[in-house]
Write a structure and sequence with these properties.
The structure holds 2 protein chains of 2 kinds. Chain A is α+β, with helices and mostly antiparallel strands. Chain A has 19 helices and 30 strands. A 9-stranded mixed sheet of chain A has the order 24-23-22-25-26-27-30-28-29, sandwiched between helices. Chain A has a 7-stranded antiparallel sheet with strand order 5-4-7-10-14-13-11, with no helix packed on it. In chain A, α3 crosses α4, α6 runs antiparallel to α7 and α8 packs parallel to α9. Chain B folds into 2 domains: 98 residues, Rna Polymerase Sigma Factor, Chain: A; 76 residues, Winged helix-like DNA-binding domain superfamily/Winged helix DNA-binding domain (Arc Repressor Mutant, subunit A, Orthogonal Bundle), CATH 1.10.10. Classes of the chains: A alpha+beta, B mainly alpha.
Amino acid sequence: MSDRAAPPSSPEPPAPRAEGRWRAFEGILRTLRRTERLPSGEKALARLRVEAEAADPSQGDAQTSHPFVRELMRRYVAGTLDPLHVEALWVLLRCDPSQPEFQRFSAELDRTALADRAASIEPSRPSSGRRRTASPERPGKSREVPVLRRRMWAVAAAAALVLTAGLIWTAHSSRPEPRQTRLRQEELRRRSDVLRRLAELDRQARELAAAQEMPKPLPPQPADPPAPSGAESRPTPPSALSPQQEALARRKEEAEKCARLLELQRQFLQRELAGCRTPKSSSGSDEDDAAASSAVPAAALQAPVEVGRVLEVDGASGRAMLVRSTEGAAQRQELTRGIRLASGDRIEIERGGRGSCASLEFGGGTRIDLAANTTLQVVDRNAVRLEAGQLYACVGPQVVEDPRGEYSAPFALQTSAAQILVEEARVEVVFTPSVSLEARLTARVDAGQVHLLNGKGHVLGGKGQELTAGSRSAPLLTDGFQAPIWRGANRPNPELPYGKSNPVLVSDEDAQRSFSTEYALALAHSGELDLRGVQISHGAVDERGFEKEATAALCRIVAREIAQLRRTGLRFAPDPVAGADRALQRPSSGRCEDTVPERSRAVEQLLAEARRAAPELPLVVVASGSLTDLASAWLLDRGIADRVIVATRTAPAAWNMDPWAATVVLERFRCIICHVEFPAGALSLARLQGTRWEFLAARLAGGGNTDFSQFATVTVPGFVRKTQRARFVRGASGDPSDFSFAPDPDGRVWLVTDADARRMAGEFEATFMSAEHLGAPTGAARP
Amino acid sequence: MHDLELYAILIAEHEAMLHAYVLGLVRDANLADDICQETFVQAYRQLSTLRDKAAFAAWLRGIARNLAYAELRRLHREEPTDPVVLQGMEEVFGALDRNPRGQTWQERAQTLAVCLDRLPEVMRSAFELHYLERKTAAEVARLLSVSLHAVLKRLQRARESLANCIERQLGLDPP
């Protein structure tokens, strides 16, 4: 429809109820689209902690027991703390009060705070605490000298505090996030903003100093001593200087204070950013200082920073190597006791037994033991000071929770990575072996304070928590890493790059004879599968072209079946979406990229779901028919190749429906190919009678169904016995039907060469004949 | 575990929901942040008065609503005092509170984002600029090089389409 028809005067709907719903939608969509982290919860918690500590000082730590920090906290609780100082408070709470810089810094600011307090309680002065003196420029007016000085002092302190907060924030805000690129850009933007403000502050200080050049020598001016707590400020005694000289002298004095504070700030920032080891000399000129202040953060962030040391290396238990990048070149050396670890270092345990090969110590006494087949990467220095380190994400970039939450032995856990935030560094530990849970184990976390967080930020456990393998939030003690690892993703077949935790899209071509769609619906109903949709692709071979409207007609039939199942109480049963009606045509160039895609609703859904999936947890498309829609989706957006894994079968008939689409998919996507016939004879189908699934008995009676096998690779533990990595090789004839697979350890194809068919039957019984389904009403469920 | 640590879990679970709710009320992200922060603090102090633990989300929204009203009154801004408007909001958030699959709130809410993805590109771009990036209709028209008339039309259609889709997703009756 044209945009010119029936112009609305306003996009607002009239009904108040609809308006309310719309407000809710808008709030939700804007919240979901928000790129930066929501700060309210964290700040509320911080406030509550401060309140709790203020009420019970015994709960405080070294930071909060410092009088300056305590004074800031008192004001914060009273609601009288300036917002700028609130940020400073968070910074100070993370600092080590034993550092001399902290003491000097707080002493300077404390003096200001005390002077403020003294001025505010002075009874003999006007309530505003102003001291009026004759203005040299305008004799009839008065001037507020102390207030001006205090304001300048406060502005300089506040600016310096904000700079501290900003720079420290930028120094440690590089945790991996799903929107890492965006956050990185944001971080760079903020950093440049902070540097710009610092340069601006410098410029102002220089201008101020230049403006205070004395026209003639002044008599010596006593420095303004810090006002003691509770002391009253006395009026300045009459001076022999002219008012102009007096004003200039004061301004110079204030400029010097600003400069001192700036210098103090620089040193403070340098120590924070450079690991408190390389204090910069303050003897340079202003220009040098300005250049140095600009250079410090970048250099401090990029230069390797020492984060720990090697406590012990047991050569008998394994071979540990240190890979260190020096002037752009990676150098390998054997790990030996006493080596100082720096950011960017990588430690690889190449071989060894089950025991610890190397023990590392990070700041604050955090100790990590590494065993064989483990790689530890020191990612960066983190300026946040923690008590003993936090394990904030583990088992892959995204921790995934199986909705059912039951893991019983035997259970194989494929650990891929752990990210650990220790006192001074963020390290990533990568495990190559899988961890097998062979019996129920009980373990206790004794080393340090460990918070187990999943990808959603939920705290799953803590120090001293009793950990029971197989329970819902069971961290496990692994061979590679002597610390708890949350159970992580459920991969029933560790050889394959997916599992039940992945989002799944079913593409079924033979819904009248197979039961892949029903299986997916049953798993989704019981919450075991994240089913994103059901697609219908055409399966009939028709001179390599599909029957017009046949896919849509089949889709309508499946939609009726699903609707009937839904009426029996089946939850999460999405309506099917129709795929393409025609096969892809091989372009004359023979290049996949030159193919003209076939658009359909299924392609749109594939694109949307693939874009939503993370590369770490890709969308699994279980395809049993033509691969036309998958190939078309890739042709429309090639970026989805890393976000989709295809589980399909080796039925030549299925691939011959659209051989060129199969070529595109097998060349561009990661594919798992499995072809095992379902042992229908092993089942007692009579148990299905009277359930919502009784119609499946008739389908299985025909036998010979192989559609289920590719689904079993995703969901059935122990189904896959053996796989072989391979790559797709086109035949010399140029015919899309002429192809083969060549063994390749890095190939994009996993060929399942041995599988346990009986486990498929077991899975069928466990799913369709479970108590959850047997008791369901069946009256309408006879598709 | 310290009670504040337990409360941190509750905060993590409800932060996005509360932010979305308050944002719907006040339509100002910064103000919403402040109100959310205050809501969590107030809720913690009054946690002992909560009788039905399962109704924590709704209870939290009630506190947030009162705080938002107070803040809007203080700022002399518009107040969504019409109870039918609030009922409409509560219908949406109540539907999202029901959680038979054990998902987080964000995961449940993500199903609504599907509807946005389904919008045709011309509508979606206008919608995102106007509603999510808070550009005025005239600014959207300038950015998209179309007439104001066309933008208003696209916004109306996008909104209707989106509302229908989301209501279907949440199983809500038409208003």
